[in-house]
Structure formats: C-alpha cells, structure tokens
User: Which sequence fits this backbone?
C-alpha cells in the first residue's frame, strides 16, 4: 500500500510517499503558509499530487503540533498555527484526497516512526524525545502508543527544571531557541565568543563548540545537563528499554550524549537507568513522516 504522509509544523510542511516495504520513497517540503488551515490543506494536496504523479494513495497520515479532539480529530489548540482552532483538517483533506485520513499529535508520530523503522525497532517499551524548536515526546508501552486522556501524553517540554533563574519549563532551557538565547545572554554580559550579532541559532552554537569556542562549549555543556535532567525524569517515570533523542538538537549526539549520560547516572532511578541505551535518531526529519504513515497503515489494516 502507498500512503501519503504529511508533517505540518510552524515553519514547514513536509509531504512524502511512504510504502510499508520501503519507507519514504519521495518527499518534498515548503515553508508553512500561516494564513490558516485551508492554505495548508492546499499545500499538502499540491505537494502530494506532484509526488504521486497519478498514483493513488490508499491512506493518508498527517501529524500536527496540536491538541486533537478525541473522536472527531478537530483541532482544539495549536499555538504555533494561528487560526487553526476548531479546524476540521481531517474532513478537509479527506474530501480533497479521496482517501481515509489519520491525524496524529506530532510527538506521537515521532515515536511511531522510531518504533517502526528507527532505533526503537524491536523494543516494546520506548521513549522518543524530540528536541528542536520545542521539546516533546511519545511513548511506546508494551508495544502500543500511549496517548493519554487528551491524546497529549508526552508533552514533557512542560517539565519543571532548575535553571540559572530558578524553575523553568524544560523547553525554556534546552530547546533550540533557548540554547541560542543562553549564548546571546552570556555575550551581552561581556563574555568573548566567535559567535557574533543577534541572528545566530543553536546550530551555530554547536558548530562553534566543535571549533572549541569556550562560551559555546559552556552553553552546550549546560544544555547537556538540562537535557539529561529531563531524560532522567522520563527514565524514572516510564522505565523504557531505550531512549531515542530526535529533533535538530537531539541529534547533536557527539556533543550532548556524554553530558546527558552523566546527568542520567546522577539523577535517574538507578535500576531503570542501568545499561539503558540512550541514542540519537537515525531517521532525522523523516521520523514524523514515517510515524504518520505508520498510523495511517494501522488504521487502514484494522
């Protein structure tokens, strides 16, 4: 079966053709049209038609950074997508694509992707933590996705973590924007760095750390500790067999994993943390696309 998969975010819309045998076989993306859900539906339909090139999709899977109403799949809350409240994304897409549509919260899609074709394959209990613009997660428990009452299980960016200014939400300390802001704050306090101006991103901070910039190295070391503290809470709570770190920050394993591991050894429940693999995703940005497609395949085959 061929599935059309879409990953809708606050900055980009990615669409892919996915098969059960080969995973992603073609994909395309463009910046998200933030004028509303109708515009994004048009983006998905247009990109999908280009990729399908006359083929028929047997199922459609879409992941969104939103709270979805159980039963109807209407969007209840989407802070990064203005004007999406009460949008019937599922209905709009189904009428345009003439195929059954499955919607998923983006953290859950990432977990399904890692479980299906990523490092989580073969494990029955897995935590997938996505660290990028924000922080979120999905959990596989006894071989099944754990959704929670409101399909929001995994909103771990809200964890309280102690930072330089006291307790803050985890993503206010360890997300991409937070890492860049920490570096800018230290520079504003008079610290010397090869990082210049106010337009650099977390990616630039990591690159500077690889070139042994002292300030960047400090910021990355702090980020690793804060990420490790949050991962420790996840391990102590969920007792997974494996933790997979994804997203643009989570995949900076060469710099982050040693510090994360040290923090886990200090803060996590020791029996749950023993011999626990903590790895970076091998799927990159395709994790959400694969997870959305996997959810669509599951629905179609039910």
Assistant:
């Amino acid at each position: 079966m061929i599935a059309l998969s879409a990953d809708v975010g606050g900055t980009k819309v990615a669409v892919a053709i996915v098969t059960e045998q080969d995973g992603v076989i073609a994909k395309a993306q463009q910046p998200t049209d933030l004028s509303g859900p109708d515009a994004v539906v048009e983006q998905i339909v247009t990109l999908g038609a280009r990729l399908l090139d006359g083929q028929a999709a047997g199922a459609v899977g879409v992941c969104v950074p939103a709270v979805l109403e159980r039963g109807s799949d209407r969007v209840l809350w989407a802070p990064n997508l203005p004007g999406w409240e009460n949008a019937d994304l599922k209905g709009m897409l189904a009428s345009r694509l003439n195929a059954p549509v499955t919607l998923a919260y983006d953290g859950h899609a990432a977990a399904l992707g890692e479980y299906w074709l990523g490092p989580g394959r073969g494990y029955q209990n897995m935590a997938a933590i996505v660290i990028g613009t924000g922080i979120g997660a999905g959990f596989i428990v006894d071989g099944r996705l754990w959704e929670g009452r409101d399909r929001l299980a995994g909103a771990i960016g809200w964890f309280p973590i102690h930072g330089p200014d006291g307790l803050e939400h985890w993503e206010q300390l360890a997300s991409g924007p937070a890492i860049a802001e920490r570096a800018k704050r230290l520079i504003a306090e008079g610290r010397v760095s090869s990082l210049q101006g106010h337009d650099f991103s977390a990616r630039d901070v990591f690159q500077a750390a690889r070139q042994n910039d002292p300030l960047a190295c400090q910021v990355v070391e702090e980020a690793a500790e804060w990420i490790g503290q949050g991962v420790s809470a996840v391990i102590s709570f969920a007792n997974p067999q494996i933790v997979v770190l994804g997203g643009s920050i989570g995949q900076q394993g060469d710099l982050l994993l040693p510090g994360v591991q040290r923090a886990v050894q200090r803060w996590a429940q020791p029996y749950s943390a023993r011999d626990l693999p903590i790895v970076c995703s091998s799927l990159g940005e395709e994790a959400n696309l694969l997870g959305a497609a996997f959810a669509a395949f599951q629905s179609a085959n039910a």
